Amino acid sequence: MAKKQGNQWIKLSGYLFLLGMLIAVIEGLMVGTIPSAGTLLVVLGFVVGLLGAFGMGSIGKDDIEIFMLAAIALMAVGASGAVLAGVPYVGDYLAPIVGHIAVLAAPAVAILAIEAIWKAGSIKYM
Asked: CA-CA distance, 53 to 115, in Å (whole number)?
């Protein structure tokens, strides 16, 4: 029975992440369409990160390093939005989309990074 409940948390985490991605793309394409989109993305990212840290999310223990590395790269690209904005035809759309995805990923990465630092720095008993 516990396994089925665990699967529900994983599904919920995955759906929340997909919802965040959808909001990021919509808000990136049509700025101002979704009120408080930034706050909503931060909250969704925070919940996804917490579920991942507790082992109940769609980000499994095997995926944490890849997720963190990809998210950090995405945040770096999002921070340099001026570079993306310079791409002809699609740059004006890419820059805000990537920026909003970075807003979604940042809280999840922060929580998972804190968890990793905590585990690495804690005393390990044999």
From this structure: 7
Query: What's the one-letter identity of residue 78?
Result: G
- Tell me the torsion sign for CA atoms 17, 20, 22, 25: negative
3-state SS string over the chain? Answer: CHHHHHHHHHHHHHHHHHHHHHHHHHHHHCCCCCCCHHHHHHHHHHHHHHHHHCCCCCCCCCCHHHHHHHHHHHHHHHHCHHHHHCCCCCHHHHHHHHHHHHHHHHHHHHHHHHHHHHHHHCCCCC
Please give the model's pTM, rounded to 2 decimal places. Answer: 0.82
Of the candidates 90, 91, 71, 68, which has an alpha carbon nearest to the alpha carbon of residue 81? 91
pLDDT tens for 106-121 read: 898 899 889 888 888 8
Residue 82 to residues 4, 54, 73, 85, 96, Cα–Cα distance (Å)? 46, 37, 16, 5, 10
Per-residue pLDDT at 1: 40
